Amino acid sequence: MAASSTKPRSPAPAPAVHRAEASADDYRLGWFENMVGFHLRRAQEAAFAAFKNRVGGIDIRVGHFAALVLIGENPGINQTVLGRAIGRDKSSLTPILDDLAHRGLVVRQRIVHDRRRYGLTLSAEGERMRDTLQEHAQAHERQLQQLIEPECYEQFVRTLKRIATILPPV
Amino acid sequence: MAASSTKPRSPAPAPAVHRAEASADDYRLGWFENMVGFHLRRAQEAAFAAFKNRVGGIDIRVGHFAALVLIGENPGINQTVLGRAIGRDKSSLTPILDDLAHRGLVVRQRIVHDRRRYGLTLSAEGERMRDTLQEHAQAHERQLQQLIEPECYEQFVRTLKRIATILPPV
DNA sequence: TATTGTTATACTCTATAACTATA
DNA sequence: TATAGTTATAGAGTATAACAATA
Predict the structure, then answer these.
(1) pLDDT tens digits, one per residue of A127-169
(2) I need a labelling partner for A91 at 20 to 30 A (CA). Which of B6, B68, B81, B166 fits?
(3) What is the rounded CA–CA span in Å between residue A98 and residue A74?
(4) Mutate which of B65, B70, B90, B147 to test chain A, going by most A C-beta atoms within 10 A?
């Protein structure tokens, strides 16, 4: 999660992964106590922080990792579709892909019969990087799964998917 | 960064609530398919976007709403403890409380025997605002709950809490 | 005209560090 | 010295709109 390229870190401190601790029990959540939305947010933040800490030694970010995995899974995918898969606008992907391509992890290749698009694939080094990161992610995932009662795991993931996909935009 | 050109791009767009749609099923999630972390993130983003849309007509943000609820629940709480409750650094709360106080929703009162602290309470108007927002939040919550099988609800929330509180920082 | 990807730009959120004033 | 809150600042992350190239 360090900078994608070497960058002078002037007066700035190391951007440590931070998680504000709510250790002391000197407040009441009250109405939030059983709110799904509230705890969904807290859980996501905790999981995200834990993952960032885990891969903290590797100079790559979560969004970059997601791109590596999905390109590996969908070789030849273009940036617009990749954006949909990650849930980000295509313009947000440009700097990510720029970086990954610049580091030789991803290959962008113009598609012959539609020269507007790039087909994205992983280089051999990109595959190695993805594999390394996947090992970390797998360990992280095991850690998460330990917090879920085994008989509830399937249902838990299914519920998350349902929320992500069919929650109406209101 | 190089602002070499003279042509001004367009000025500020309206900060609309956006959710990139992943409608077309023209990609495979592959390895992410059953990852808790991945879907936790997507679910949280969807829920957050839905909530923002719901209260979109009211000039207040999620962090502000959280502050209102928690101050209402813990009258006299100070900013540092409030920050722990929300999971944010105290410095992040200063502008939020500035705004809420400026709008007459929250009252900051120096504590007599420790003049470093403020005791935070809701004004009558703050309570009204909180109540209005809570109605929206309650509707949002009902919507979320409809996506959870009723017999799994308790367990679902419990799991989220467990992830948020006892996930080791690695 | 529509689409892909890029660029310019702006904005939200949040943390860190240094600071003031208290304790 | 330690703590509560503020200020200044940095920077990650991401969107929107306009654009060029191509369809």
Answers:
(1) 999 999 999 999 999 999 999 999 889 999 999 999 998 876 5
(2) B6
(3) 18
(4) B147
**A30–B85 CB contact, under 8 Å:** no
Sign of the torsion formed by the C-alpha atoms of B25, B27, B33 and B37: negative
**What predicted TM-score, i.e. pTM, was given to this entire model?**
0.84
Radius of gyration of the CA atoms of chain B, in A: 20
Burial-class residue A77 by CB neighbours within 10 Å (0-12, 13-18, 19+). buried
Residues in a beta bridge with B119:
B109
Residue of B nearest to A92 (CA): B20
Question: Could you tell me what percent of chain B has a pLDDT over 70?
Answer: 84
Count of Cβ atoms closer than 10 Å to residue A106 Cβ: 25
| B43 contact to strand C (CB, 7 A limit) | no
- pLDDT tens for each residue of B32-64: 999 999 999 999 999 999 998 888 778 888 999
Indicate yes or no: CB of A85 within 8 angstroms of CB of B22. yes
